[in-house]
Amino acid sequence: MGEKMKLSLIQMNSGSFDVKQNVDKAAKYVTEATKKGAEVIVIPEFFNTPYFCQYRDYKYMDYAERGDGYSISAMRDLAKTGKVYVVATIFEEEAAGLYFDTAFVIDPEGNIVGKFRKIHPSAVKGLEKIYFRPGNRFPIFEILGWKVGIMICYDFFFPETARVTAVAGAELILGPFATFAYAIWESMMRTRAYENGIYLAPCNKVGPEGDYVFSGDSMVVSPMGVIEARASGSAEEILITEIDRSVVFDARRKLPIWRDRRPEVYKSIGIPEEMARGLI
Question: Which one from 128, 153, 171, 209 is the annotated catalytic residue?
Answer without folding.
Answer: 153
